[in-house]
Specification:
oxidoreductase, alpha/beta, 10 strands, binds NADP nicotinamide-adenine-dinucleotide phosphate, 42% helix, NADP
Amino acid sequence: MEKFTLNNGIDKPVIGLGTYPMKGNILIETMEKAIELGYSSFDTATAYKNHEEIGEVINNSIVAREEVFITTKLSNIHQKHENIEEVLKRSLSILGLKYVDMYLIHWPVPDYFLKSWVELEQLYKKGLVRSIGVCNFHEHHLRDLIEIANILPAINQIELHPLLTQKPLIKFCSKYGIKIEAYSPLARMHNYIQNSDILKELADRYQKSIPQIILRWNYQNGVISIPKTQSHHRLSENISIYDFHLSNEEMISIDDINMNFRVRHDPDNCDFDKL
Ligand SMILES: NC(=O)c1ccc[n+]([C@@H]2O[C@H](COP(=O)([O-])OP(=O)(O)OC[C@H]3O[C@@H](n4cnc5c(N)ncnc54)[C@H](OP(=O)(O)O)[C@@H]3O)[C@@H](O)[C@H]2O)c1
């Protein structure tokens, strides 16, 4: 599995497994298969309520802990009402792990996210997390954060796919060395993706699937992807993206699909209490 280096010098695999909404045996079997196939990065969150299964797989695996990259997230409710170090320690206890590799603020909860960031910096300094970052931050959230931060986020995990290419935000983050990680990278295989003539044509040209074309496009753009699948066949498909190359024109043709269409919430227009 190829890796990208983050702004604090640690490496993160180009493809990770998104685990929402998997739980229970489905998640355990999917993760075991993923590890067998070469996955080492797993994306979870307190809100997904699947830490126990994830910890069980990691702790029972023959793969060393240092070889695995675990990302989890601070929930909105916890930003508002709790001591964040205690929240993280509870997550670590359920995971059965001494540290996580990435701790992200799940959403930029107004009035709280700057305070949360200061607390995440402390967790990083104490070594409870190997890196810290954010999710769902627009440029204006990041500008506010940069004003008060001593440490810049290693990652901004955002909704990103050919229907929502996020070019201005990618440019802004790259200026500050903040790596972009694409969630819902396949736009949950929305009909607009499945029926896209451009994606179908590229898939035919390279004898690849549409998801492989999209994940390759992200890779060539320097973007990490965390597709979710519980199909063993698709787990393998989603990491088989290194044996072809999209030309500049082909990359631009995918960029041009953009229609600023979201399959998830807009961080400026959502009910943070329900997320
Ligand atoms: N930070 C945040 O706020 C946030 C928000 C949303 C998601 N996330 C993270 O991002 C991860 C992925 O996002 P997502 O689940 O919303 O969307 P996604 O990865 O774009 O799409 C998942 C869907 O695509 C299907 N799929 C996956 N690979 C496929 C393939 N090769 N061919 C055909 N279908 C395929 C899956 O079905 P099968 O399982 O049946 O294959 C599933 O229905 C989540 O699991 C979560 O970890 C983070």
